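Dear Dr. V.,

Thank you for agreeing to look over these. As mentioned in my earlier message, I'm a first-year student in the group and I'm still getting used to reading structure tokens, so any feedback on how I've presented them would be very welcome. I ran two proteins. I've put each sequence directly above its structure. The first is here:
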Amino acid sequence: MAEFKNPNQQGGGGQDSRSLFVVMFFMIAVFFGLSYYRQKTNPKTVSPNAPAASQPASQTSAPPPSAPSASVAPKASSTTNSGAPAVQAAAESTTVVENELYRIEFTNRGAQVKSWILKQYKDSDGHPLNLVHTQAAEKFGYPLSLHTYDSGVNASLVQALYVPSTTGTLTAPATLTFKYSNGGLDVTKTFSFDETYVLHADVQVVRDGSPIRALIAWPGGFGDQNNAQAYAGSQVDLSRSARDEHLAAKKVSGGETMNGPLDWAGVSDAYFAAIFLPDSPTTASLVTFHNELDVAKTIHRTGFGSGSPSAKAINVSILGSALGDTSGHTLTRLYVGPKAVSVLKNISTTSANGTRVTLEPLLEFGFWGAIGKYLFLALQFIHQHIVGNWGWSIILLTLAINVLLLPLRVKTMQSGLKMQRIQPQMDAIKEKYKKYKINDPKRNEMNMEIMKVQKDNGVNMFGGCIPTLVQLPLLFAFFSMLPKVVELRHASWGWIPDLTAPDPYYIIPIVMVVSQFLMQYYTPSPGVDPQQQKMMAFMMPLVTGYFVLSYGSGLGLYWAVGNFFGIAQQWVMNRTSLGREMREIAARRARRKAGAPATLQGKR
């Protein structure tokens, strides 16, 4: 390892050395813990010969709708078992409903949705985003299909040709009704649309004159799920009596029924959601679906070796849900759209206990959620009112945070100077007790003397670690917030096409390593041994660079800008009277240490 000289480097051990290493060890442990968690939640690669996951008995596969016919001809030539004329279409048709936010294409086969385009969002190829996961829908069912507890009825309803109230294109506000009657089954599905992301569904299924429980479903997945992280972020979300819950895939059982009260419930991934808001929360019930799908041919890969289809199967969890009412008559609103705070907070319902609840809890940032939420609100404010680019907004937010932390860093440097001033006394105490072994009780007396010297001189042994301890929660909150904010999805800055994805050119990780090294190099560490200082100056940049290599470039941008701010600040502070005194003390100690070996050798 090449030698280098740190202008702020000092010799000697001490309590501060141990406290610094405690912080560094904590950072490394957290980083690798988070990386391990992400690997555990990524899709597993299995052999293509592995048996397919079995589906719950309550679920049936829905075949894809066939190509729509050019003409529609409802017919009533046949009769039901009760003698009433059948109501079913002669051919398949489509109806499109759209507003400024979406374009929904229905097919009358199963009266379900073939595509659900969100006009304000793009997929990874730059096309308008279709929220229907086509591969999953072909196998597990399309959105707004019906789910009953009878597999035979499910199969009939999926294949039935309903008679729509209209075909062609409807512009919201609008209402679309599908009717079907045959073989003793009478089905009516009515959907009402307005100018928002929310629609209303009115569904009723009657068999031989008696209502049966038919739930309206979002059977599985979202169209933006095209990489490992997207599948890992899928979950079931629900609110019971104004208390929200979020169930990861491993906690979701296929075919399980959750009875009310349910304020709202459904499924989501990192950025989008399909959530039911029942008209009657008390009598609502939710069925959860958990299937597995081989996405080896469709998944997008990032990082080294990306781009080519995998020869092995890649099985991922596909979550879905269906909501109904115990009375057999389902009345519910359905939100299908982005998990954006500005949208979610305006969608509300009344809980079973009379409390008003919104969909805002859908966007949750984990353990550091409270900090992450306010970090994003500050970031959003900068984006809306100062600069209209998310990358520059991250830079400005980083600078603002570092300016606020500047007084704390000055206090830390003052604490470091006090530590240097008493270092000769601490060295003398250590010299007095060095003949005792580390487990000797006399060592406790040494520690007591050192602590007394520190206390008498107003030195806090953890003073040098306070800025790091304060910044760590901000860093971890930013880490948990970044991949869950739909506003940052596909947000570009400079050469980076997506701030939530790794830098495709690896520039940010390289800048991170360089800035972290310079930060370690210029920052004084009172009481830390020179060899330890050298080791940390190389080890920490490599650890953080590796971490940023596979994570969202927005985090690396935040981190690197903070490092460069700290370098500039330290460069200025090193030239103040405080900095000059620290360097003079360090130089005197270095000269004493340089002369010590010669004196000892002469005695020998």
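The second protein is here, in the same arrangement:
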Amino acid sequence: MLRNLITVGGWTMLSRILGLVRDQLLAAFLGAGPVQDAYQIAFRLPNMFRRLFGEGAFNAAFVPLFTERLTTRGEEDATRFASQALGCLSAWLLGVTILGEVFMPWIIELIAPGFDHGGGRFELAVHLTRITFPYLLLICTAALVAGVLNGLHRFSMAAGAYVSFNIVGIAAILLGALVFNDTATWTAIGITFSGFVQLGLLLWSVRRAGMRLSLPRPRLTPEMRDMLRRLWPGLVGSGATQLNLTVDTLISTLLPAGSISWLYFADRVNQLPLGVLGAAAGTTLLPVLTRHVAAGDNKGGQQTLNRAIDYAAILTFPACFGLLALAPEIMATLFGYGKFTTEDALSSAQSLRAYALGLPAFIMIKVLSPGFFAHGDTRTPVKIGFITIALNLALNLMLYRPLAHVGPPLASTIAALVNLGFLAVILHRRDVFCPDRALMQRLLRVMAASLLMAVVTLALTRFLAPGLVMWHGLIRAAMLGLMMGLAGIVYLVALWAFGISQPQRLLNRLLRRKRGAQP
């Protein structure tokens, strides 16, 4: 499981790095203002579907059913089931896409109530979203094909295909800015075109794996009804985090121009560790837990979940405390160029700190959710999801006026903590999640090591690089890199001092696993 988690996490990390380059170009060429706000609304809707289907509900509904058929009935039956699902999903998504294109002005009024007609942002958002909306048809279909690859334990291409989204996106931004002088429109075109590229790569990979999917006439067979019963509740249950972020965006349209952009870039930095660790853990953990459930191995499932929490915590807590310590320097270094001013970077850093407070909760939700899905339970997460979405909306309405652009991310953080608490308590009562004393002690020590790292890093930054936010160019980037490197060293030393891990033993373990995976 650790090797698969690292494989998926590695591809996701590459995708996030390229995504960071893409966002830097967006910030430099569009800045933080009405055009950027309109583009972010156009990007948010299909991207929400990508995260829900690609990283959440669809995997939860499809992968266990596909894996069960592949294991117990053979490849032919699994192929037939996957083809049926592909036919039904494609037909439904095509209908949604057509309706979305027709009724786009009303959709924008719903998700961006703060955009006034005639002010420019509303009309531009409608135009750009009509360009990007077909992406949801392509990427949700691609999610099914990726689920087939995950069920076949071919995690590399399923994770690697998403890298093409950012490669195509970078090319589109440069074309729009440097050749056609219309960055927003060409960036929107790049989103939809990347959907064709991702779907093509995944279909090619499935064929190489020896499984030939077809596109039959959609029929609601009993198998499809079973999958849909699992899918719809999971859209809210496993996607509560993404729906909460969408609520943040909706509320931020009521704030002054630029607020959507500040929230977006803060969320993108927060999504780097969240995507790498959360998506990797959720993707690789579900098939493993499903096998334990099928074998009746309850103890093995508990141990697997505890190990996943342990692995995630060792990387999650330092990311959380590191972002809290260096948020202004990180935002200024990554995005403080071109039309994105230092003031924009500082405002975005305030939002980032509010998001970072909830980073451990966001990731642990991804780790615990498969504990429900592996047992075929999608109803409980959906109930919890409804509660936390309602809580997030209420907190947003309470906080957005007094705290402005800090209110929405802080509301999401509080809602995520409540969500995590519900998941943990219910799984514990069901004897699925049983953290032992050793795990709890390790979590406390990891938190202490992360806090020590943050304090030392903050002191070193103030001593060695006062006013780093105002520095320029490569000097600022080099100094931030030095601070982050020192933070990593401090953290590793703290892990060793607190008896959590010996770096050399961990490295040797990973190298042994890598050599064992080679033919």
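From my reading of the second output: The CA atoms of residues 318 and 450 lie 5 Å apart. The radius of gyration is 22 Å. Does that match how you would interpret it?

Kind regards,
E.
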